[in-house]
UniProtKB/TrEMBL annotation:
It is found in: Cell inner membrane. This is protein-N(pi)-phosphohistidine--D-fructose phosphotransferase. The lineage of its organism: Bacteria, Pseudomonadati, Pseudomonadota, Gammaproteobacteria, Enterobacterales. It comes from Rahnella perminowiae. It holds the Pfam family PTS_IIB. Residues 7-105 form the PTS EIIB type-2 domain. NCBIfam families: FRU, PRK11404.1, PTS_IIC_fructo. The chain crosses the membrane at residues 132-156, 176-198, 229-248, 260-282, 302-322, 343-364, 404-423, 443-464.
Length: 481
């Protein structure tokens, strides 16, 4: 047996308290006795500790995965192309010597995983935006499920079913029950958002304190405020708790007490500290700021509101999934729990326009596009119609100046039209089909504004790209001379 293997390992178990650390310590002790170098990443109750770097994985001869719960695809992707021995953590605990005796024989090459993510512009792993989007991604199912149930209840009422609220000696109607269940999604979207923002920063120990404290910050009855802290509270508390927990996780208490740090001590200290801070200070302050924002959105003159809507629409269309788009999207989405639906309607219209317009322009002016772009037009139109903006990106990359300019101008105009026509969107849905499932209203205004937006976007693309291609041809001819 070789005496100079470089090994890396990952251990985890369902509880993340005992076996995770016991197996990690046993692997380290046995590897040292055999003369091997090893680094073990533990994914326990305190979160990921002793994280393996890309350089350490690249240099390793073998990877040992002793698992009690599955790794995510992103986690597994780190070990693509490496020789990996994967086993149950319970088996590893029973026979550590067997792990090393059979490692060379049983290790299997982990296949390369696809890293293609259409339309996703890279975001720095530890950036604020990355943490915020982790919270939004977790909150989306709550809003989608809740929004669909609220829309279903409204449709049933329109069809003639009775709507009776629960009261003393009064049985609620079916429509009221469905609507109430739906509104639970909006109620819990903010605590879930705050919890996952904190978890993205500080890992699992930050989750529970952030969830409970974010819920407290939105309980206006307990805080004695007229409004909850809303998404502002979720962002501030999620980030604050996440970074606080990240610092606490660096505390070392010894092998016997270390497992208790993440499962007991960190949640207790964090919840006590931030719970009191939220009740006496952060909650009331954030609630006041949220109340001021809501008052501003509801009372500003229409001219100023149209200007803001134009800006939001332009930002949404500008970089199709990039940081500018995400900033505008996050603002609109975060207002849903406060019952403000017109800003999210801008997302519902503008997100459709870049891909659909690129495809329609390809049909109307094929000479302005390459054979590959023309071949992708049908799929771009179909996918774009269901609020997947990514298919527009190849068209924008091929001719950035005319395509992005056309998208941004038409997106700004469409944003203003959404406000003028009073369009509302309850939750994320199915793009052009949103009015059919009750998420977008009024339906006729939505299709009218979308039609105007697409017409303008296509016209701008044809005009700007035609001018751009002539300039490119002229420049090429000049360079040739």
């Amino acid at each position: 047996m070789e005496n100079n293997w470089k090994l890396v390992a990952v251990t985890n178990c369902p509880a993340g308290i005992a076996h995770t650390y016991m197996v990690a310590e046993a692997l380290e002790r046995k590897a040292r006795s055999l003369g091997h170098d090893i680094k073990v990443e533990t994914q326990g109750a305190s979160g990921v500790e002793n994280t393996l770097t890309a350089q350490e994985i690249e240099a390793a001869d073998f990877v040992i995965l002793a698992l009690g719960r599955t790794l995510s695809e992103d986690d597994r992707r780190r070990f693509a192309g490496k020789r990996v021995l994967e086993m149950k953590i319970s088996d590893a605990l029973k026979n550590i010597p067997l792990v090393f005796n059979t490692l060379e024989e049983k290790a299997m090459l982990m296949k390369e995983a696809s890293g293609v993510r259409l339309g996703q512009q890279p975001v720095k792993a530890d950036s604020i935006m990355n943490h915020l989007m982790a919270g939004v991604s977790a909150a989306l199912p709550f809003v989608i499920g809740g929004g669909l149930l609220v829309a279903l209840a409204n449709m049933l009422v329109q069809m003639g079913l009775p709507y009776i609220a629960q009261g003393n000696n009064v049985s609620p109607s079916f429509t009221w029950i469905v609507e109430s269940i739906g509104y639970l999604g909006f109620k819990f979207m903010i605590p879930v958002m705050g919890a996952y923002i904190a978890s993205s920063v500080g890992d699992k120990p930050a989750f529970a304190p952030a969830f409970l404290v974010s819920y407290l910050a939105n309980d206006s009855a307990m805080l004695g405020t007229s409004s909850g802290a809303g998404f502002l509270g979720a962002v501030v508390l999620g980030l604050s708790i996440g970074y606080f927990v990240r610092v606490l996780r660096k505390v070392r208490l010894g092998n016997s007490l270390q497992p208790l740090l993440g499962s007991m001590l960190i949640p207790f200290v964090t919840l006590a500290l931030f719970g009191l801070l939220t009740y006496y200070l952060i909650g009331p302050v954030m609630a006041g700021m949220m109340e001021l924002l809501l008052h501003l959105l509801n009372t500003i003159p229409m001219s100023m509101k149209l200007g803001a809507a134009c800006l939001v629409g332009a930002m949404l269309a500008f970089d199709m999934g990039g940081p500018v788009n995400k900033t505008a999207w996050f603002f609109c989405f975060s207002l849903l729990d406060k019952g403000i639906y017109d800003w999210y309607a801008i997302v519902g219209v503008v997100a459709l326009m870049p891909p659909m317009s690129a495809a329609l322009a390809t049909f109307l002016a094929p000479r302005l596009f390459t054979e590959q772009e023309r071949g992708a037009a049908v799929s771009t139109l179909v996918v774009g119609a269901t609020v997947a903006t990514e298919p527009a990106i190849p068209y924008a990359l091929a001719a950035p100046l005319p395509m992005i300019t056309a998208n941004t101008l038409s997106g700004g105009i469409a944003g203003m039209l959404v406000m003028v026509f009073g369009i509302r969107r309850l939750a994320p849905g199915l793009g052009v089909f949103d009015p059919l499932i009750g998420l977008m209203s009024p339906w006729y205004s939505f299709y009218l504004v979308l039609g105007i937006g697409l017409l303008l976007n296509v016209a701008f693309i044809v005009i700007f790209k035609n001018w751009w291609m002539k300039r490119q041809t002229l420049r090429t001819a000049t360079d040739a001379i």
